[in-house]
Write a structure and sequence with these properties.
The chain is an alpha/beta fold. The protein has 2 domains: 3-197 and 334-421, Zn peptidases (Aminopeptidase, 3-Layer(aba) Sandwich), CATH 3.40.630.10; 199-332, Alpha-Beta Plaits, CATH 3.30.70. It has helices at 3-10, 13-24, 36-49, 121-141, 165-170, 223-243, 301-318, 342-355, 370-375, 402-421; strands spanning 53-58, 72-79, 82-92, 110-112, 115-117, 146-154, 181-184, 192-197, 199-208, 260-268, 286-295, 324-332, 335-336, 360-364, 382-384, 399-401. A hairpin with a 2-residue loop joins strand 4 (110-112) and strand 5 (115-117). Helix 1 packs antiparallel against helix 10 (402-421) and helix 2 packs across helix 4 (121-141).
Length: 425
Amino acid sequence: MTQKLLELIDKRVDDLVGLTVDLIRFPTANPPGEAYRPCAEYLGERLKRRGFEIEFIRAEGVPGDSERYPRVNVVARFDGRSPGPCVHFNSHIDVVEAGEGWSVDPFAGVVKDGRVYGRGACDMKGGLAASVIAVEAFMEAYPDFPGAIEISGTVDEESGGFGGVAHLAKLGYFSQPRVDHVIIPEPLNKDRICLGHRGVWWAEIETGGEIAHGSMPFLGDNAVRHMGAVLQAFEDELFPALDRKRTTMPVVPEGARRSTMNINSIHGGQTEDFRPGLPSPNVPDRCRLTIDRRFLLEEKIEDVKREVTGILDRLARKRPKFRYEIRDLMEVQPTMTERDAPVVKAVARGIMEIFDREPDYVISPGTYDQKHIARIGHLYDCIAYGPGILDLAHRPDEWVGIADMLQSAKVMAIGLNILLRGGRE
């Protein structure tokens, strides 16, 4: 039914690779938010030449935004010849830092052995490029299509998405009647549909003490030792309890089908306030711990928090001089789009046509920008689907397969055709 459309995508393979390489060469590392504006402008200029109306939206005042590192997003829209639904492809343009251990330049966009290497190749500039190629091929095949198509390049997903999709959602860019269906080309494998993600609660715990000379610790009260008691209680009580919890959500990998908590960071004493390498001469009077709690559809956020605060309150009652503060940093409810939602069924048909098999339906172990589309935009016809292997994300020598991008572009184009034209040839 869609042979013409698929042939147009095959003819664009060199353009697909070139676009991916170009996007990787913008070193959009977050933090601090390098090269956001030029990357957004590059994508906007390309889509403008294809007839899209372009908007650049800066999220002024959000964490990280500054004149040096402006949080600039791009939204492109093309209205068809007649009324109809709007399909929106959303990709984040920010990437994590390159880190050590690369065998190639992480921002060169190296092409070899059927792959494109570089930071963000997999997560998720390859997916962004595939969505652009899918849309451009669809528009050439069916110039009289009804409805509308949007493509966005948004920022700060790697740090929570507050300067990107969250900001745009607050402005109405991810709500009806403007948008009906959203596809986020995150790397969850080319034959999988990601319906949503686990919940997350980030919090900072701070223990207090009393400063004193390091040679006479008995005159002070050590906040780091108090935090050590917190960590020991977590090890003895909380982590085993979390490990026993299981979900019916199809989370991948298997280990993420349980509740988890990560200790993201710990800071105590004066050393961090001095130049690196200098010791602290004092008993530390403050210690801060950041936790990253991932929870399941079967859990309530109130219970998730109570598990932690219950331990802290008990220590406050039983441990001499123990006092603490706890601050919420972020909380997001678990999200799972229904399998019979229009965007799910449309992309599933694309996967069946390209791979001749039913897709796997999965849930992401971590959150991505679908959380803001559901939480703020109240739009639930949203999935993640794109090329790339999630296990490669954020690692040295990150890559995306050229054949995978091509096949994913075909799936997205077929899904687009179903959502806007009912799949007609």
